[in-house]
Amino acid sequence: MAFCRSSLLLRNARGAALRFSCSSRMEGSLTCSDRRRWYSTSEGTTMTASGYHVSSGPSHMKGAVFWETNKPVTFEDFEMPRPKANEVLVKTKACGVCHSDLHVMKGEIPFPTPCVVGHEITGEVVEHGPLSDSKIIERFPVGSQVVGAFIMPCGSCFFCSKARILSYDGQDDLCESFFAHNRAKGTLYDGETRLFLRGSGKPVYMYSMGGLAEYCVVPAHGLTCLPNTLPYTESAVLGCAVFTAYGAMAHAAQVRPGDSVAVIGIGGVGSRSHLPGLKVGRLLIESVKIPYNVNLETYLIRKLVLVGGPLLSYCLIKVAIQIDPICCLQIAKAFGASDIIAVDVQEEKLQKAKMFGATHAINSRKEDAVAKIKEITGGRGVDVAVEALGRPQTFSQCVQSVQDGGKAVMIGLTLSGSKGEVDINHLVRKQIKVIGSYGGRARQDLPKLVKLAEKGTFNLQAAVSRKYKFEEVEEAYKNLDQGSIVGRGVVEIM
């Protein structure tokens, strides 16, 4: 009975899928009859109660495995990963090269090994997990082209379910399942990885979906469809760099038309740049103490909004990881910000910032950044300042750069035990808000970002400065660590 009911749902889903808007990319390469053949049981695809399965596909795949710090990545054979309920198997086309992967590989963020990193992907849907919701099968039919967000919400925890009565999909960026299972343990939300070495069956852990492999399993709530007008390679950055920037500007900063915005550290998280600090109040903000054997990111999943008030005596700071600050500039411009100020010590980065929306550029090696920001804004400071380096010096600059009642948004990762200095009286009397931001909200934000990219709001082609072949993964991360990638690097796996 369950089989018949499921088959009926799948037949209905099949018809709906051909009409669904996200299949527009398929229409660019397949005729209507071709697309129907994706669902024909006689052509290698079977329909069962467990969903669509590509039975004629390969039984194994290649993946790039990180084993331990200071050891090179190796390419290994894996059993073909199998998705479970409400998960999707994606044939990976491209995967971004990101500093948060590098933090794992350098041992700066504790994470189980061996693992496959890579968390911003584009690809093609080839299979659904058993007993997946029919709505997921309708939305992502086999053959759909998709982009994945690095935060993959479960859709059912407290934060994912929060505020549905207000007609939005909750706070996906605080998904409890994602942080408790994936970031803390390298698994998906049943506590198991989907990656196993061929032959030995040894489990390999997943940083997000483990995108540096020929196929990856992604919880469906972390995906959205990609139209045929957007290329696979350049679109990979939508799932992290652009996604994280959008979360910071839309949800944390809540940038409005006419706001003035400063982005401090155009080099981004992990940059070798040094921005001189300022002498401010000597009272230290208390730092979160993190045991050596606990995943740093697990501790840093709560956004703490620090609002000056008479009872404020100390604050706990949450900082986040991985952003391309260039994307912050583009999003600020898209939101209608007036003065958009880029701060860095490298002229090359500052010149690029002007190409992506900055109205002013400040080289803080040559002049006092805070004083210059206030000069530009008529002595007041900016409405929003974004700190993208995760350094005590730039933390202070960020707080000092905002006007009374302004917002200082922290998106840069710092080592555990680091402390930021701030004048508590300044924070209290001026009603400065210090806000941490980790990323965007996949179900809400990723579809919006795809539409903005279609409109040309983001210059994806210019943002991606280096492209690598799959076998060049090790070189890509070496280049990233050396600071030789200006913009974003993407590995092409297709």
UniProtKB/TrEMBL annotation:
Q: Which SUPFAM superfamilies match?
A: GroES-like (SSF50129), NAD(P)-binding Rossmann-fold domains (SSF51735)
This protein's cofactor list reads: Zn(2+)
CDD domains given in the database record: Zn_ADH10
Q: Name the domain of life.
A: Eukaryota
Q: Which residues form the Enoyl reductase (ER) domain?
A: 68-491
Q: Which UniProt keywords apply?
A: Metal-binding, Oxidoreductase, Zinc
Q: Signal sequence span per UniProt?
A: none
> Which molecular function term from Gene Ontology is one that the record holds?
zinc ion binding
Which InterPro entries does the UniProt entry name for this protein? ADH-like_C (IPR013149), ADH-like_N (IPR013154), ADH_Zn_CS (IPR002328), ER (IPR020843), GroES-like_sf (IPR011032), NAD(P)-bd_dom_sf (IPR036291)
The UniProt entry's sequence similarity note says: Belongs to the zinc-containing alcohol dehydrogenase family.
Name of the protein in its database record: Enoyl reductase (ER) domain-containing protein
- Name the species this protein comes from: Salvia splendens
Q: What is the lineage of its organism?
A: Eukaryota, Viridiplantae, Streptophyta, Embryophyta, Tracheophyta
